[in-house]
Design a protein that fits this description.
Elements (H helix, E strand, L loop, with lengths): L3 E12 L5 E8 L4 E6 L1 H4 L3 E8 L7 H10 L4 E8 L2 H5 L17 E7 L5 E2 L1 H4 L39 E2 L4 E13 L4 E5 L9 E6 L1 H12 L1
Antiparallel strand pairs: 1-2, 1-11, 2-10, 3-4, 4-5, 6-9, 6-11, 7-8, 9-10
């Protein structure tokens, strides 16, 4: 599973080849760099370590700085390991820049990001509860309450994972099967159709669609 680390710039809109207006999310992948490799002989699996975002050496601790110096790689702020085959790993060398053309126009990708934090939220906002429709019979300011949360003496407790008020957001979310609308290699930008989880300037991970890969495997197995 090849992939890129990028920064969500924001959303805009472009015209496709048919002249239709398409909303897109702009992802900056300009500073992706290979900083390490994993080989079956040494690590028992094959992978490529990709770094993103420049960082000064004085901001790194000794173990981090030693990792980059041992690999003779430029320090990077964010690191991510992508599994690849041994043949694919042989095509990458430490220090190589990974361009936006790793993905082609029209390809389906999965984009992973961290959702926006919304603090402590009630059940109507967090879980889309309908809320109480009773406004009479002694009900006082109860329209947005969750209602009953447990049973009687048996079992005498509230079950785990009950949908209740709590911290909402800051969760790892993957949006699947987004179409790559355009790729700008010079500026290091990837434009994907639709919205991506996270705020602007948030770090996202772009990978090929897992569902497309699974369909190809099932078709080959037949």
């Amino acid at each position: 599973m090849k992939g890129l680390i990028g920064k969500k710039i924001g959303m805009t809109q472009v015209f496709n080849d048919e002249g239709n207006l398409v909303p897109v999310t702009v992802i900056d992948v300009n500073t992706c760099l290979v900083v390490g490799k994993r080989t079956p002989e040494k690590d028992e699996y094959s992978a490529v370590t990709v770094g993103f975002g420049e960082i000064r050496e004085k901001l790194l601790n000794k173990p981090q700085l030693g990792f980059f110096k041992k690999a003779s790689a430029t320090p990077r702020r964010h690191l991510r390991e992508f599994r690849v085959t041994a043949e694919e790993a042989a095509g990458f060398n430490v220090g190589d820049a990974i361009k936006a053309d790793l993905f082609a126009k029209g390809e389906l990708v999965d984009v992973t990001g961290i959702t926006k934090g919304r603090g402590f939220s009630g059940v109507m906002r967090r879980w889309s509860f309908k809320g109480s429709q009773t406004k009479t019979h002694g009900t006082h300011e109860y329209q947005r309450h969750p209602g009953a949360i447990g049973q009687r003496k048996t079992p005498g407790r509230t079950y785990p994972n009950k949908k209740m008020p709590g911290h909402y957001g800051v969760e790892r979310v993957t949006t699947q099967n987004l179409t790559v609308v355009d790729v700008d290699v010079e500026k290091g930008l990837v434009l994907v159709k639709g919205a991506v989880a996270g705020h602007n300037d948030g770090i996202v991970i772009v990978r090929p669609s897992i569902k497309v890969a699974m369909r190809a495997q099932h078709k080959a197995a037949r």
